[in-house]
Design a protein that fits this description.
Length: about 325
């Protein structure tokens, strides 16, 4: 069976400290981040994707990570965030988040005091006369080539809005309103045919596990979209499970769907190689999910056709 990617061994620890708790307004200082974790663990410091640490504390720069081997399969990663503030006051920083897989580790919180720059009032520059405010008129700010041909721009705007509406309403979904749409199979029949076609391709048997699980989850996402009117195609795995938990029809098989999506995420994003039994079990769980959530009227029609077929044979 496929093992999880949770952090093994000793826990990951994140520590933050400031070069100085006092910072002169406009100057820069370093915020040191120390991360102690097992070797081979890949994580992300969320501050690497931010421009600020708080409303008044900005990130002016970052240093490259420096990794130190601590022994016993442990390493320490040292990072520096260069911080800056242009407004005096006392500000709370953190805690900083470090994400490893599905786990998030938080650092300690810090407090930074920004000291204002002293100004000599005798050297201050004063205007001879206050600056007057010019009354605002909208068309004074509009370029002449727009103001003179406003009707043409309005027409262009309306055409652009109509085109955008048509794109998101039809063409993005592969629908051409000018061409008659072919009658589509019911969601159950389409999903079962696609599952059989996927199995016939023998992707995982030829070492294409990623393509296999991508095709398997795509079939289930489209089926969920059509069967339960849930936009599963645009959702993450966790969002799909959370949404279907509130649906009585899927409650009995939600666990099986969750196992399929979790396995698929490991294969697609963690480059995992599942066993042959795992691949077969994922397919069977997908079939079970589609069968268990088949509309009641379709189930009744199928059960009614089965005895009639037996009588015809007799």
């Amino acid at each position: 069976m496929l093992a999880g990617t949770a952090v093994q061994g000793a826990p990951t620890m994140v520590k933050a400290r400031l070069d100085s708790a006092l910072l002169l307004m406009g100057k820069t200082s370093a915020l040191h981040v120390e991360i102690v974790q097992d070797k081979g663990v890949a994580g992300t410091l969320t501050a690497d994707h931010l421009d600020t640490l708080s409303a008044m504390v900005e990130i002016a720069g970052r240093t490259a990570p420096d990794t130190v081997d601590l022994g016993n399969n442990r390493v320490q990663i040292n990072r520096d965030l260069i911080i800056q503030s242009f407004d005096s006051g006392m500000y709370a920083i953190g805690p900083l988040a470090y994400v490893v897989g599905r786990d998030t580790f938080m650092s300690n919180s810090l407090t930074l005091k920004v000291i204002p720059v002293s100004v000599d009032s005798l050297k201050d520059i004063h205007e001879i006369k206050p600056v007057e405010t010019v009354p605002f008129k909208f068309f004074d700010w509009v370029p002449d080539f727009i103001a003179d041909y406003w009707w043409a721009w309005l027409l262009l705007l309306l055409l652009t809005a109509a085109g955008a509406y048509a794109y998101f309403r039809w063409y993005k979904r592969g629908i051409n309103p000018l061409r008659p749409e072919k009658k589509r199979l019911p969601a159950y029949d389409e999903a079962m045919l696609n599952l059989q076609a996927l199995k016939a391709r023998q992707l995982w048997q030829n070492g294409q596990e990623k393509e296999y699980f991508t095709g398997l989850t795509d079939i289930l996402r489209v089926y969920i979209d059509r069967r339960f009117s849930v936009n599963a195609v645009e959702m993450t795995s966790s969002q799909i499970i959370d949404t279907l938990k509130r649906n009585d029809e899927t409650r009995a098989v939600n666990e099986q769907l969750g196992m399929i999506l979790e396995m698929a995420d490991f294969v697609k994003f963690a480059q995992a190689r599942p066993l042959a039994d795992d691949n077969e079990m994922a397919y069977q769980r997908a079939v079970n999910f589609v069968e268990a959530t088949r509309p009641v009227d379709e189930k009744a029609a199928a059960s009614a056709e089965a005895p009639a077929g037996k009588e015809g044979q007799s």
